[in-house]
Amino acid sequence: MSDYIPSIGLEVHVQLKTRTKMFCACPAHEEGEPNTTVCPVCIGLPGALPVMNREAIRKTVKVGLMIGSRISLRSMFDRKNYFYPDMPKNYQITQQAAPLCIGGAVEIEAGGQRKTIRVNHIHQEEDAAKITHMETTSEIDFNRASTPLMELVTEPDMSSPDEAIAFLTALKEMLIYAGISDCNLELGHMRCDVNSSVRPSGTDKLGVKCEIKNMNTFKGIHRALEYELERQAETLRKGGTLVQETRRWDDEAGITLPMRSKEYAHDYRYFPEPDLPPVVLDAATVEAWRAELPELPAVRRARFVKDYGLPEYDAGVLTADKAISEYFEAAAKKSKNFKAVSNWVMGELLRALGEKGQGIADAKISPEALAALVALVDARTINMPAAKDVFQVLFENGGDPAAIVKEKGLAQVSDAGAIDGFAEQAIAANEKVAAEYRGGKEAALMFLVGQVMKLSRGKANPQLAADALRRKLGK
């Protein structure tokens, strides 16, 4: 799309990890029967009054602190009036005029390039109910109504679908690290409205904005943006006119479709929420919340590269999940071979967990046991095939690697006399291959090493086996 420049901005809605809903005592995030975790407040019965959830405010402010926002020491709630079945009181309590967090930025990396994505603001609001549309009817579940929701609005700084996904990935990692949200996209914990426009190359004025509503998969967002940006550019190439509108993504057809003309702020008739006081914070409280912030993923990645000498790829894989990064670090602190620990975590451990459909918390092999296993390999007590057998036992049952090696008789044979004997047997049984090696075929040696390993039942030290074979074959 060299003739047009895309601009993308995101409105990211995140359900906060709190025990109760935003303005009442109903439990949040309950997955029970529909319409069972509701009360007069969250379904808007006359006379019911909202009470603010302090924990939701704290979590939203902490997100602002993580991205460098200016925290408003005084903010307000407003009523956003609209009439739709998912909002039973016909208005949503949100923040429009005075949000909690102003500005900020998130650093991303896409296509090998680093970029800063500016954030306009973060505000607090309540979630709507969940509507399930069927062929001729729709069902509404009010369990989700009034769940604490944080909305983060970016500037239109992204210029490709890859950059949009990089931003969402970085934000998701940050939110999970800080315990702000579980960010389970399947359960709707993280959703996104995607705004995009295109303008002719060489111009600065942004094009006409189109919004794609309620996207809840990263793959869907990427596909929708690819289609929508090309649709807008092609419309302009053909001399057509774009209108500001809201569209929806049809994932099966792979296209966006118009829903309605774009609303403006005055359409919602915002006014200050009369049933809630202002949110008033003091600097000491904000600083106390700042002190609670964890080490963020980007900082941890850089530290893993610096402190453990890991390649950036390894650091990226390990820190993508907070629990995995903590497991690695616990094992690395007990080991002298940080790269080997990284290899075992990224390779065997993640593979085994994936096959079982488990998370790192389910792993029976402790970080200390993994470090001990690495030490056994480094000391040449066991070879790699034996180490993988030991790992499997540890993964299934836990235990002590050294005890498993002793119990199963897996200690590596490094005795020169024993290995010489295996080498002589391998040569005698494979004279043709031995002759090929003497004739200059290097690959033949690896076959003979394999025969030595077979004769030793996998216990021979492969390097010593190769050395013995070379001596006996005169090379």
3D structure, described in words:
- The chain is built from 15 helices and 17 strands.
- The strands form 4 sheets. Strands 1, 2, 6, 7, 8, 11, 12, 13, 14 and 15 form a 10-stranded mixed beta sheet that branches. A 3-stranded antiparallel beta sheet has the order 5-4-16, with no helix packed on it.
- The longest helix has 20 residues, at 218-237.
- The mean pLDDT is 90.
- With 475 residues, it is of the alpha+beta class.
- The protein has 3 domains: 4-289, no CATH class; 297-408, no CATH class; 416-472, Arc Repressor Mutant, subunit A.
Outline:
This protein has 475 residues and is of the alpha+beta class.
Keywords:
20% strand; Arc Repressor Mutant, subunit A; alpha+beta; 10-stranded mixed beta sheet; elongated; 475 residues
List the helices and strands and how they pair.
Blueprint: E1 4-15, H1 54-66, E2 70-71, E3 74-75, E4 78-81, E5 91-94, E6 101-102, E7 105-110, E8 113-126, E9 130-133, E10 138-141, E11 148-154, H2 161-177, E12 190-200, E13 210-215, H3 218-237, E14 245-250, E15 255-261, E16 271-272, E17 279-280, H4 283-291, H5 297-308, H6 312-319, H7 322-332, H8 338-356, H9 367-378, H10 384-397, H11 401-408, H12 416-429, H13 431-438, H14 443-455, H15 462-472
Parallel strand pairs: 13-14
Antiparallel strand pairs: 1-11, 1-12, 2-6, 3-17, 4-5, 4-16, 6-8, 7-8, 8-11, 9-10, 12-13, 14-15
Helix pairs in contact: 2-3, 5-6, 7-8, 7-9, 9-10, 12-14, 12-15, 13-14, 14-15
